[in-house]
Amino acid sequence: MALKLMWLVLGGVRVLWCLAPQTGYIHPDEFFQSPEVMAGDILNLKTFRTWEFNTSYPSRSVLFPLVTTGFSFTILKVLHNSGLFGSILNSYSLLVFPRFYLTCLSFILDYSVYHLACLWGADPWNALTLLSGSYVMLVFFTRTFSNVIEAALFALLLLLVAMDIKQANVALHPGKKERKNNKHLIGIVLVSGFFNRPTFIGYALVPMLLWLSRDQKGTFQFSLRQIMKSFFGLLSSVIATSFLFIVTDALYFGSLLSETDWLLKDGNTMYSLFVNISQCLVLTPVNLILYNLDQKSLIAHGSHPWFTHLTVNGFLLFGGLHISAVVTGVKTMVNKFACKASCHISHKDNVGKKLPAQCPAATQITEYLLLVYFTPLLILSMFNHQEPRYISPLIVPLVILSAAKCEMLRWKIVIVLFNVLGSVLFGCLHQGGLIPCLSYLEKTLHSQNPQANPPEHSLVFYHTYMPPRYLLNVKSDQEFTRIIDLGGSDVSVLNNTVNGLLDNFSSEHIGNNQEMNVYIIAPGTVRDDIENCGFQWKTVASFFPHLTMEDPPDIPSLLSEDGLNQLNLYIFKVHVKGKKRET
Fold it and tell me: Quick count: other Cβ atoms within 10 Å of Cβ 444?
């Protein structure tokens, strides 16, 4: 009963913290692979489209962004146009609506873990408590990452495969002829996962090999013939789902409708029509795979040692659960080798009756869970670019594997402290000032009354993560708001950019009454650099906490009088006219 109550409380915390909202900024992909794009398409806001959604070489399928953040923004647009809730379209609703949708979707993992634990003999409430208490669920899976969808599909695939195998093992009555009654759902999940993120192949490898290698009676037969025979049963759902994704992408990116002259030509044969249509189709996951096979592309995004997932990212996300899985895996391998050695000796000495006592091998379920956990981890380790969130779906088999271990309960204090620290770091501290800063700027931009000659606003972001433009709630045709992202550029670039804005404004608007506001958004760790720039400014706002690991604070000076200013994100307003600087 206590564990059930704990799961309910943690589930409530997951939803409420999403609505709070969380201010931590984990990675730009949270915004630029879904809500930034959909906000421009549906709400007609000023946005920035990244390379994945380039119409000349699209590398991300648009179907999942459409049905998640696209659907959320459609509901928001309808509510805004109805006028029932006043001015509901603001930075808060733009941030929270799609996040809330994905948070609700994350409960698919809870549903799957509960039923998987029951099927595999683990304590379901232990597993659910470990799952819902993990900061991966509380922080990462309440964001608009495509990894959330990947994790949900991975959990569903594990559940569908486990249900089919369980039914095959218990179905002894002669009337049962068809074993794989979930084959169409498995085909849909398989293709959906691939089009969402091609890395889903690595996650699906072990459960799909197990499913494909069992015949209609549930007997395990690992052979190419059996695998091909089972795979043909998936073809109808695989083809239908693939067709849906491909046509949706072709329509969205314009390749299917931009060149339709061949439809109007006389004398077209069915073959020519088929060839012309096939040339207009878009295979976004194939484009993404080809992009990532290019070493130059991976280096541009960052290169990591091959063992990063195994030694760093696994511990960073899962803490002691990852260490426990590694230890269990090593023990299982040792037991396997010991068992084989015992079998060899027993065969020679003809003492096979003693074998069970000599070989306490791990159970089949434990071995399967270890394969499900470590196989995707090792496959993803083959790529040089390794981010922690890439392996976040592995929390599903990990919590079930850990729930069966009584010794994990002894470490519950350590597990709680680890997840609290992870929640604070990624949910509050990491780049934590940028989202409140954008909300402040959104209010500033919309607080002024409409004027015949509105002021120009130039927002210069310096040494921050990419700012999601849609949170400023600026229409795409608004020419008086300019957003400049300098990233981690040198201070000389900042100086030249700001002075260039001032010079252009002076030359273009001599003699009129138009105003211009130039704001610099930068962390406190680079404030000294801005002090040395050749323009005047004043501080208008600051946001605490803001931890940037690209420009980390000086730890010894944090305890000084002004040390905590390093953990602020500042908005500096540049003086367009020659006034003395204020601080």
Answer: 17
